[in-house]
Design a protein that fits this description.
- This protein has two domains: 3-52 and 265-398, no CATH class; 82-252, no CATH class.
- The strands form two sheets. It has a six-stranded mixed β-barrel.
- It has 400 residues and is of the alpha+beta class.
- The protein contains twelve helices and twelve strands.
- The protein is elongated, with a radius of gyration of 33 Å.
- Helix 1 packs across helix 10 (317-353) and helix 2 (18-54) packs antiparallel against helix 11 (363-389).
């Protein structure tokens, strides 16, 4: 019997018992739809993370105080590790292959300007920060080299959002601003850049690192970030940084994290979460497989007499096997197609009504999901089909 005839027979058999067939394939459809939806969300978040990091460069190394794992784990206990200082940053800036560097001090404070008050993020940075993160200056200037040391002037640069909040459409350059009770002069405004993992760098004010350390009464920076020549192997740069800081600190009491490691750590977390949640959708596939096996067993029992007659008239055993296998595969394939349609529609609806949640449907995975559905149907129908093919002809003909 040709494949065309087999599947024509299978579709006819499904059409005869429409409700039963629909309820059976629904189990496969729910499983496929759940897996497609969850995978689309996971893929969308993964792409979002990659895009967010790519906006700020890919050749960045973060140096944090204290020895810890770059891939997370239990929070480190308080230690006697030395702070990362402005002198450390200056020493690293003199290394070969280092393009830009910025010691970073993070905090927030009450900001007063133009008769308005707003609490916002205050970032202590070096004069190369805008080059490090590829941020353009919308108006005015950025911090100069003389503001990178301990004698930095009380100057500030506004993020685009914070400037709009405090000054509206008025020119902010040259205006005075009060940060945590200290007065600063605004020398520039940054262009709109966006967010980095939901941290809005446009809604912040930037002052020299030394000023931020004094403002928050700190002896060191939160971390140091630097960029290196893209044509140089990152391992070589890491080795130079490690040697320099060990010679200054006497031991390796710091952590080096590359941009690739940051992305990889987040990707691993997202992959684990997505896999765990998708496994729940896989339970529906198992239920669907059991449903198909049950229905095919019932079908064999219902058509025992017909099977005996077909064998008596000369039908081969493998033809009987093919008939029931094709019915199981058709059932699973239709359930898979329904699940794909529902999953893609749900993913699209999530993207429309929850725009904050990135969704991206991997079409290669969609094809793989349909293939898996067909395999499930094939596996579920094997035992009932073999049972049908092995029926004794005489006993089958006696069946009412």
């Amino acid at each position: 019997m040709r494949w065309h005839d087999l599947f024509h027979f299978a579709l006819h058999a499904l059409a005869v018992y429409r409700l039963r067939s629909f309820l059976t394939l629904l189990g496969i459809a729910v499983g496929i739809a759940a897996v497609i939806l969850l995978t689309s969300i996971g893929e969308g978040v993964h792409n979002y993370v990659l895009n967010e990091f790519s906006k700020f460069g890919s050749n960045i190394i973060k140096i944090s105080p204290g020895r810890q794992s770059a891939r997370g784990g239990m929070p480190a206990l308080p230690s006697t590790a030395r702070d990362l200082t402005l002198d450390d940053a200056a020493a690293l800036a003199r290394l070969p292959y280092v393009s830009n560097i910025s010691p970073v001090v993070l905090g927030n404070a009450e900001i007063r300007a133009n008769g308005r008050i707003r609490r916002s993020s205050v970032m202590g940075i070096g004069p190369m920060m805008h080059l490090l993160y590829s941020v353009e200056i919308a108006m005015g200037d950025f911090l100069s080299e003389e503001d990178g040391g301990r004698d930095a002037r009380a100057l500030a640069v506004l993020g685009a959002t914070l400037k709009d909040e405090l000054f509206g459409t008025a020119n902010a350059v040259g205006a005075r601003i009060e940060i945590g009770g200290e007065r600063y002069r605004i020398i520039g405004v940054l262009q709109q850049k966006g967010q980095l993992l939901h941290v809005n760098i446009d809604d912040a004010i930037y002052i020299p690192s030394a000023r931020a350390m004094s403002l928050y009464n700190r002896s060191g920076t939160d971390h140091i970030k630097l960029s290196y020549d893209v044509h140089v192997d990152v391992g070589q740069v890491l080795s130079l940084i490690r040697q320099t800081l060990i010679s200054r600190h006497g031991r390796e009491d710091f952590t080096l994290t590359t941009q690739e490691e940051m992305i990889s750590a987040l990707t691993d977390i997202l992959r684990i979460v997505t896999s765990a949640i998708s496994a729940l959708g896989g339970i529906s596939l198992i239920v669907g497989a059991v449903g198909i096996a049950t229905i095919m067993t019932i079908a064999v029992a219902e058509h025992t007499a017909e099977i005996g007659l077909m064998v008596a008239l000369g039908a081969r055993r493998r033809t009987i096997l093919g008939l029931f296998l094709s019915e199981a595969v058709a059932l699973a394939a239709l359930g898979g197609l329904l699940g794909l349609f529902v999953g893609v529609i749900l993913s699209w609806l999530v993207g429309v009504f929850v725009p904050a949640l990135p969704v991206s449907t991997p079409w290669l995975f969609v094809l793989a999901a349909e293939f898996v559905a067909i395999l499930i149907g094939l596996a579920s129908g094997v035992l009932p089909a073999r049972r049908a093919a092995r029926l004794n002809v005489i006993e089958a003909l006696r069946t009412e």
